[in-house]
Amino acid sequence: MNTLLKKSILPIIVIALLAFLALQLNNKPVAPDVTFNTIDGKQISMDSLKNKVVLVNFWATDCPGCIKEMPDLINTYKQYQPKGFEVIAVAMPYDQISQILNYTKSQALPFPVTHDSNSEIINSFGKVSLTPTAFIYDKQGRLLQHTIGELDFKALQQLLNKELSI
Known about the structure:
Blueprint: H1 2-26, E1 35-37, E2 43-45, E3 53-59, H2 64-80, E4 85-91, H3 97-106, E5 113-115, H4 120-124, E6 133-137, E7 143-148, H5 153-163
């Protein structure tokens, strides 16, 4: 009887563990509930970006890696934005608003730019302190990728092709 009980309980335990593991693998972190106030006076909530793949890019005007990757980010945005991709560029609190405005204008940044002057956004994203840092979310607002340092644009385009079903 004891052996029979063990043989019948063991498969149930294994199935329960496998179900738990599957749930954990699918339980990705979700985007924080924040609203971006852009430098041109618009408000964009993360919730309003559902059904889009969203890249939140933390950057600074004095960050060499940020400046280096910006042309590729602009090109990627222009290519994928009509297909459901959005970029929100978050300038760090220590950045001067005049420098952000000058850079945004001189580079004709096509995506929304916000200045996180009070650190609210960087705190919502886990106290971002290094630039560039990017968070990429799927259409349901689940985290797909978190990158500290320059983005790999070839890998980003492959991810976008997959997530946007291109």
